[in-house]
Amino acid sequence: MKALRTLLLRDLAQFLPGARKGNTLLPLLFFLAVAMLYPFAVGPNPNLLGATGGGVIWVAALLAAILPLDRLLAPDLEAGFFDQWALRGIAEEMVVAVRLLAHWLSFGPFLMLAALPASALLGIDNQTLQTVELGLLAGTPGLAAIGIIIAAVTVGLKSGGAALSGLLVIPLAVPLLIFGAGSLSTGGEGGIALTGAISLVLVAIAPFAGGAAIRAAREG
Amino acid sequence: MEAPRLVARDLACRRGYRLLFRALSLDLAGGQACHVTGSNGTGKSSLIRILARLLRPYAGEVERAGSIALLDQTMALDEHLPLGRALAFWGGLDGRVEGRDLARLGLADLLDVPVRYLSTGQRKRAALARLLGQEARIWLLDEPLNGLDRDAIAMVERLVADHVADGGLALVASHQPINVPVMAALHLPDYAPEPAA
Fold first, then answer.
1. Among B51, B41, B45, which Cα is nearest to B8's?
2. Quick check: A152 and A214 in contact, CB under 8 A?
3. Which of A22, A154, B77, B174 could disulfide-link B86, Cβ–Cβ 3.0 to 4.6 Å?
């Protein structure tokens, strides 16, 4: 348990917005920038904005979640952290599970907060905003898991990792978007429940997929 | 405390299409040290990683008893943190690095300096501090003398000698001579496959 806590504290110190290492504020600012710029791009028609705003928030959330992909796992593999953890009997699966939690904490709750000003900018009504917030609560853990899986699969690639990441995101993210953003048009709890179910599956798979991918990268 | 032991049987290592060494066996117990020699590319680092179970051997098996520590070209310390806090992370997993060890390594005055500003030799010594804090019984050292000045080399030799005298086990891969009493030698090119006739 002590090891888990030590790992989580280090991860949070690296990934929470405002942490000293790297562009930790970028996902949040990116999300807000999309919400600010979208009305300029499609025009100020309130009906159009209201009808499409929820979907825009979802796409922006997905893209914000995959922005920090290249620094989720690769730096620690290169610096030898995963080797040292393995020698101490700390499984890659455990490290990845902790990292998944830290990654979600570093953008999930903050996106839900940022969705409030975003909804005002996009002219979304309260009912829809509530659906968006619940959907984000159910869906962002899945987005975090997708990010971790892709970061692990591409961790050993020196070049071309970014291109492969972009391709891999699409099929993995489609189910979450269908049900997450879909819950807006049906206004339904069913969509949110399905989003949560997909999230849980992704969160359950991520540590094992990530651990196996990291071990494979080490052999390379 | 259990006696450390490191046994390898009939190891072979292949990287890409090249067989680096084969039919390599060794059996080390506590109080023994071994110096793995060989020029660049003969598989010293691969042997170390196989013994640490970070790399699967092409053939053969590795058995070990006792906790294990590895020092290689990576530091596993956060570059942006001051040295003291970077070491404290591993301290949280292993137990604290003692002030006596830090003074011995000449790091006591550098604890506030971010890791990225350390020189090559200082980085090596910082990694040694991480290794000492682990208090492992088996040491695998991959080129521990690289980038160190003459005093620091003597200090590393003393550390290894003390560790072995204390009942520990050390396997050192280095192309440089390392002066530690009662150290067996393993010349890796002896295990290279015969050139195809």
1. B51
2. yes
3. B77
Q: Distance between CA atoms of B66 and B59, rounded to whole angstroms?
A: 23
Let me know: does A19 contact B78? Beta carbons within 8 Å. Answer: no
Cβ–Cβ gap A6/B79 under 8 Å: no
d(CA B27, CA B5): 8
> Tokens at residue A127, please?
């009912």
- Based on the number of CB atoms within 10 Å of its own CB, is B70 exposed (0-12), middle (13-18) or buried (19 or more)? buried
Distance of CA A119 to the CA centre of its chain: 20
In 3D space, the residue among B79, B49, B128 whose CA is nearest the CA of residue A75 turns out to be: B79
Nearest CA in chain A to B13: A219
Give which of A113, A98, A34 is closest to A67, Cα–Cα.
A34
Is B182's pLDDT higher than 80? no
How far apart are the C-alpha atoms of B54 and A87, rounded to whole Å? Answer: 8
pLDDT tens, residue by residue, A189-201: 888 999 999 999 9
Contacts of B69 in chain A (CB under 8 A): 87
